[in-house]
Amino acid sequence: MRLPPVTWSDVERRAGTVPGGPVTRLGGDDGLTVRGLVTDSRRVGPGSLFACVRGAASDGHRFAAAAARAGAAALLVDRPVDVGLPQLHVPSVRAQLGPLGALLAGDPARRLRLAGVTGSNGKTTTSTLLRGVLDAAGTRAGVVGTLGAQVGTRSRGTSLTTPEAPELHELLAWMVEAGAQRAVVEASSIALDMGRIDGLTFDVAVFTGFEEDHLDHHGTIEHYWASKARLFERDRTTAGVVVVDDPWGRRLADQAPVPVTRVGSAEDADVRVLGWRTGAGGTEVLLADDTGGHRLHSPLVGRVHVPNLAAAWAAGRVLGVPATTIADGLATVAPPRGRNTVLGGDGRPTVVVDYAHTPRALAAAIATASDLCGPGGRVHLVLGARGRRDRYKRQGLGESARAADVVWLTNEGSHGEDPAAIMAELRVGLLGAAASVRTVPDRRAAILAAVRAAGPADVALVVGRGHETRMLDTTDPRDAVHLDDAEVANTALIAEHGLPVAADDDLAEQAS
Ligand SMILES: CC(=O)N[C@H]1[C@@H](OP(=O)(O)OP(=O)(O)OC[C@H]2O[C@@H](n3ccc(=O)[nH]c3=O)[C@H](O)[C@@H]2O)O[C@H](CO)[C@@H](O)[C@@H]1O[C@H](C)C(=O)N[C@@H](C)C(=O)N[C@H](CCC(=O)O)C(=O)O
To answer: Could you tell me the Gene Ontology terms of the biological process aspect for this record (predicted)?
Structure first.
């Protein structure tokens, strides 16, 4: 979309509102206008304001000349550069990305009411559910997160779960243009830490649960938790909805300075999960809150979605949506891609494709797969781990995998690491396991082998990549190849087991 022109003096004025030190204009008169804030020289267009961000891998100031050649009208710098363009010299370019990103996108957040969703697992599903609830309430909502951005029937791809602030504000402007009154934003801990959502204020912030993750970035679990907890500060949100099924959620609910709705199976939960059942046909949750009991139906499959459904319910209530409308909304939201996507069944083995890539998420995915097994059925797990990321998780993934019956260790995109070494680290967690472990380095071959080995009562569970369609084995992103786990599994199902022959819908059940 084409963003409005903004005068250089307005840019200077907004930049001056950011604490940290003086803002100095180096060239450019009041008649100068810029259009769109861009942080990547490869995405600069005519009239852009190019923000020179110092990063971990490179320094954006080095790309100022390239930005000028691509048509940038001016630069945002924290040290003057020898490039013939007007520059705004600020103490920290990154600290300006939120306020200036908002200004150059036309301050779209002022026309939207926002909900933010954070948590180690379940962000995408809960955001999708909440968007469905808000749409059902007649307030058109956009959503932005791991699966990209959507509003109405339109969608756009994004490279990060929570985009850099300028892109995020531009997406919000796109949602406003499409008639959105609300937006749901997935807020990753890394984004919170790097200031990507600075300047946004939410009506409700949701915490879906917590476990160790992203320690490559955060260093310690305390830092990781504190980054997520920032979403619950008074200047960020009016209210919180917190899943208190783990100690970290409980701690957040206890410490948050905003009013919190506690969600979970504990007796003191404000929205209490009394029971649930799940099967290939969907999930049913029985909840109690201060207005009584509520029964929710959802086409989403798996016990892992029970807290997500309860959290979306609670967030809808906080936002003033009537109970029946929330239930109607939740009943119609289609499962997000790669979140326990169920294939096969009907006389053939069931295949589940899921994004689980942490030990606890994997344990939950295996439990869901067991729920979906027929009598005497076995779980065939296809497991890998992404290279050059969060290496400390590998042994824990292996340990969770012990609950499967057969484990097919494979590659998940080595990003330049030795795939055999990654698989060996997964194997450490599986030492002495009752599960039989096989190594098939080629991912397509591993999925095919698991689907071939599975019988009609079995489940082949393919984890780690979920919705992803590109896989990378080198350090050069241009080498990424197309690989869609669901597509491979579907092809394998048809090749090995033919087309569906009969219906079967067993339900697993639990009362808590
Ligand atoms: C830790 C982190 O998030 N890093 C992000 C950050 O990197 P960085 O600050 O180190 O930037 P850099 O790569 O050194 O580059 C510095 C600047 O030069 C610019 N540049 C670079 C090259 C060039 O040719 N021209 C150019 O202008 C870059 O755009 C950047 O502005 O800014 C970059 C540009 O926006 C991001 O690509 C990069 O994301 C990295 C690669 C990434 O993968 N981040 C992941 C871990 C992430 O953020 N994940 C979260 C969590 C998801 C979840 O919950 O699972 C997410 O929100 O997606």
So the answer is: cell division; cell wall organization; peptidoglycan biosynthetic process; regulation of cell shape
- Please, which residues have CB within 8 angstroms of residue 8's CB and are 6 or more apart in sequence? 25, 28, 29, 30, 31, 32, 33, 34, 74, 86, 88
Instruction: Name residue 105's amino acid.
Output: A
pLDDT single digits (tens) 315-365: 999 999 999 999 999 999 999 999 999 999 989 999 999 999 999 999 999
> Which atom, in ligand 1's list, is nearest to the CA of 160?
58
CB-ligand 1 contact for 188 (6 Å cutoff): yes
Question: Does any domain span residue 199?
Answer: yes
The whole-model pTM stands at 0.91
| Residue 21 CB partners (closer than 8 Å, separation 6+) | 90, 91
Q: Which of 61, 93, 125 is the last residue of a domain?
A: 93
User: Which of 222, 219, 242 is CA-nearest to residue 232?
Assistant: 242
- Closest ligand 1 atom to 163 CA: 57
Q: Which of 175, 200, 182, 173 is nearest to 132 (CA)?
A: 182
**481-482 and 406-409: which strand pairing?**
unpaired
Contacts of 3 (CB under 8 A, 6+ apart): 35, 36, 104, 105, 106, 170, 173
Residue 17 CB less than 6 A away from ligand 1: no
Domain residues for the domain of 15 are 6-93
Ligand 1: distance of its center to the CA of 53 in Å?
10
On whether 162 is known to bind a ligand per the annotation, the reply is: yes
Q: To test the ligand 1 pocket, which listed residue (37, 38, 40) has its Cβ within 8 A of the most ligand atoms?
A: 40
Residues 312 and 458 in one domain: no
Domain match, 46 and 160 both: no
CATH of the domain at 204: 3.40.1190.10
Quick one: 211 and 326 in the same domain? yes
Count of C-beta atoms within a 10 Å radius of residue 22: 8
Q: How many domains, the chain?
A: 3
* ipTM attached to this prediction: 0.94
Arithmetic mean of pLDDT over the chain = 95
Interval 212-253: pLDDT, tens: 888 888 999 999 999 999 999 999 999 999 999 999 999 999
Ligand 1 in contact with 11 (CB < 6 A)? no
User: Is the CB of 65 within 6 Å of ligand 1?
Assistant: no
Residue 138: how many other CB atoms lie within 10 Å: 9
Q: Which atom of ligand 1 is nearest to the CA of 159?
A: 58
Q: How far is the CA of 475 from the centre of ligand 1 (A)?
A: 15
